[in-house]
TrEMBL record:
Gene: FAM107B
The species this protein was found in: Phyllostomus discolor (pale spear-nosed bat)
Pfam families: DUF1151 (PF06625)
Record's keyword annotation contains Ribosomal protein: no
Listed name of the protein: Protein FAM107B isoform X1
UniProt keyword annotation of Cell wall biogenesis/degradation present: no
Compositional bias per record (Polar residues), positions renumbered to this chain: 1-10
Length: 160
């Protein structure tokens, strides 16, 4: 029985050293065409067919634009309008929630500083409006204001 195992192992193609080399040699699956070996002028050599879609100018422009958009990271929008609107609403809602959470997390000092900042901005706006009104006012109104101021200054000077 031991002899039959060694006999069987020797008959195996994987154990035969002559056959091992034939399995290691890569074989070509496709046969080489005849027209490469022979320079026979009578043979018609195959040529690649021209695809009319790919040669069209519109297709080339579209393909170039798609490649550029892909490099930039812009994907073509194939979503329906309703889906786009719903996604925008959802994004806006998430942003609004984040802002509210950030507002809640602010300390009392930050809230007070924001209030003061808003008051200062309102005062600046009022000053700008007054300046614009004075600039747009007629000349006699400006003169009358100057006379009042000088009259008040004179009265204060006499009192002191």
């Amino acid at each position: 029985m031991v002899g039959s195992l060694t006999q069987h192992a020797q008959d195996s193609p994987f154990e035969d050293p002559d056959l091992k080399d034939t399995y290691l040699i890569p074989r070509n699956i496709m046969a080489e065409p005849d027209y490469i070996e022979d320079d026979n002028p009578e043979l018609i050599r195959p040529q690649k067919l021209v695809n009319p879609v790919k040669t069209s100018r519109n297709h080339q422009d579209l393909h170039r634009e798609l490649l550029m958009n892909q490099k930039r990271g812009l994907a073509p929008q194939n979503k329906p309008e309703l889906q786009k609107v719903m996604e925008k609403r959802k994004r806006d809602q998430v942003i609004k929630q984040k802002e509210e959470e950030a507002q809640k997390k602010k300390s009392d000092l930050e809230i007070e500083l924001l209030k003061r900042q808003q008051k200062l901005e309102q005062l600046e706006l009022e000053k700008q409006k007054l300046q614009e009104e004075q600039e747009n006012a007629p000349e006699f109104v400006k003169v009358k204001g100057n006379l009042r101021r000088t009259g008040q200054e004179v009265a204060q000077a006499q009192e002191s």
